[in-house]
Amino acid sequence: MKKILFATLFVASLGIVGCGCAKKTTKNNTVNVTELNGAWNVVELNGKNISVSDNTPYLELNFSNNRLQGKGSCNRTNGNFELSDSDPSAIRFPAVMTTRMACPEMQLEAEYLKALNEVQSVIKVDKNKYGFVDKNGNVLFVVSPR
Known about the structure:
- This protein is of the alpha+beta class and 146 residues long.
- The chain has two helices and eleven strands.
- The chain has helices at residues 2-13, 107-118, and strands at residues 38-45, 48-49, 58-62, 67-71, 76-80, 82-83, 91-92, 97-98, 121-126, 129-133, 139-145.
- The strands form two sheets. Strands 1, 2, 3, 4, 5, 8, 9, 10 and 11 form a nine-stranded antiparallel β-sheet that branches. A two-stranded antiparallel ribbon has the order 6-7.
- It starts with a helix and ends with a strand.
- 32% of the residues are buried.
């Protein structure tokens, strides 16, 4: 119970981190979110490219049990995700939990966890890239296969 409370408070406190979101979605690039079953590297966050390394945030989505696992840039992440019966591109991550290791650079992780908390749906950005977007259609982060 304390872990869930900490995770909820941690993600809620990330609301003070600004969003450099600029890209908007269109209805032409929406997808069925189940296309994302599997492991994905975060390659862009808030409009900034991220080079793939050991510290790259990633997520693994398992649609058989609606579970998420992965890593911020330092801490492991786990949780459930919610889908919509009426919108096949909709996905939300309401209760993502993280481990609590301290690392030298936590800014990337804080931005990623904040973005994850704001996700409302997924769009196709490129051949093998998908964008996770907020309620206003802003692209929060982009993933490519891991």
